[in-house]
Amino acid sequence: MYFFHAVKQRLSALFLIIILILIWEIVADHLNMPYMFPSPSLILFKLFDIHEILFYVHLPATLTVVGIGLALSTILGVVLAICMHLFKILERAVYPLLVTSQTIPIIALAPIFVLWFGYSIWSKVVVTILITFFPITVNTFDGFRSVSSEQKEWFLTAGANKWNLFTKLYVPSALPSFLSGLKIAIPLSVIGAAIGEWLGANAGLGYFSRRMMTQFDGAGVFAPIVWLSLIGITGFLLVTIIEKYGFKWRRTR
What we know:
single chain; 253 residues; mainly alpha; MetI-like fold; 86% helix; globular; ABC transporter permease; cell membrane
């Protein structure tokens, strides 16, 4: 019964996507303004037409930015979450700053990073870190805080020391929350990379989209966006699969 229910949900989502694409196609054909509002079929043809330069030149550049930025953001976020968990004074000092940092529009800071780092990869990496750092840190820290006092007392009664508490209670409790933060951070990392490339780069999907805009090529603007969307969806699905098969105990409980 569960299998058929899941299949029904996926078919419903697929049906809705097809309907929306058909509406888009009809409206775009009616307006007949491909330089501003290209149809899905025109975008698809453009993807095939420029697939070599996108796949072999600009896609690797964007994936490099996303990979480095997400890796550094994960390391820094997890380390900071652990430090805030261990030192309450650090939590009280840093947590408000984390929240405040999210009120600053990243797109306003991106040109500053271009001035500091030039058109190198690091200006895009810093933008990606800033936009993904918050969900990883906060979700991981909330995972540490989800441990109840009853659980902690049970471990202490069993003779656990501080290291046992951290590795066998706090870390397993925080892992699901960490993965939830990572699922949010992956699409955001794609956005951060695209913003950085849009404002200053020599290669990348965001850079190519901006270049096509200056040529009034509507399909060329949308074609890299399709790849950006695929990167975010693929990363999200990978983390979802890890969460589904690596944390069966969580669903059972």
